[in-house]
Specification:
about 250 residues; 9 strands; alpha+beta; 5-stranded antiparallel beta sheet; two-stranded antiparallel sheet; single chain; DUF674
Length: about 250
């Protein structure tokens, strides 16, 4: 069974606001994010691009749309993610949510011996020559698949570090941009001491939460990496209080 390597990234956190300001990430994480758009969400966003209904996932769409070609793989056509076809979502598992080692089932297509029409129903009649369409066609992927957590195709170049904001704006990392972002998010000088650098891992559980959160929130990274932990701590606190109350009642 195939093993899945978790993706590592570095968070910049404002502890006073309990908020992720941005993440420093390599191509593996950014490829995963951009491949979310292969779930034909990209087509939906394009149709509703002026409506504020998609949390932060519309920023993901715009980031890829604006990404300079020099940061993309030379053989990558970003339009495949911005305007995905119907079959795009079954060719890869961009959020690594399938069981490890499994592969999505691809649609099988057939044609007749002479004509160019295709069908997914074997032995259908060709509309031109009326012959049986029983010659199977084989799909050849244009992109090189990358098995990062079972993920999809490669999108961005490997030698660049990327900055991913809480609301999923993505661009190549630069010190100037990171300082500007920190200054814009930390209003008071005394809060500088509350900034934290935290190293985290991103796996299938986080991927599922990221997809869910990105559709309804502008604080995607905060919800994925901080809110869950906060809920655990609060839950443990409630359990401790309940146990203390029980012990007090037994006295």
């Amino acid at each position: 069974m195939a093993t899945r390597t978790k993706v590592k990234l570095t968070l910049r956190i404002d502890n006073s606001a309990n908020k992720v300001i941005f993440a420093e990430a390599k191509k593996d994480f950014v490829d995963i994010l951009f491949n979310i758009l292969s779930l034909p969400i990209g087509s939906v966003i394009k149709l509703l691009e002026n409506e504020d209904k998609f949390g932060s996932i519309d920023n993901l769409y715009k980031s890829l749309e604006n990404m300079d070609k020099y940061h993309l793989q030379p053989n990558h056509n970003k339009d495949q993610l911005l305007n995905p076809g119907v079959t795009a979502s079954v060719l890869c598992d961009p959020l690594m949510l399938l069981p490890s080692g499994s592969q999505p089932k691809q649609r099988t297509l057939y044609k007749c011996e002479k004509d160019r029409h295709v069908t997914d129903s074997k032995y259908a009649s060709c509309p031109n020559c009326y012959a049986e369409m029983n010659y199977q066609l084989w799909y050849v992927e244009f992109q090189n698949a990358k098995n990062v957590l079972g993920g999809g195709g490669e999108v961005v170049m490997p030698l660049t570090t990327y900055m991913v904001t809480d609301d999923l704006h993505i661009k190549p990392f630069s010190m100037i941009s990171s300082v500007d972002l920190l200054q814009n998010n930390v209003k008071n000088a005394e809060d500088i001491g509350d900034l934290e650098e935290r190293f985290v891992e991103f796996g299938p559980d986080e991927a599922l939460e990221l997809l869910r959160t990105s559709l309804k929130s502008k604080a995607t990274l905060t919800n994925v990496f901080l809110m869950k932990k906060k809920e655990v701590y609060e839950g443990e606190g409630r359990l401790r209080m309940a146990e203390e109350d029980r012990m007090e009642a037994l006295k």
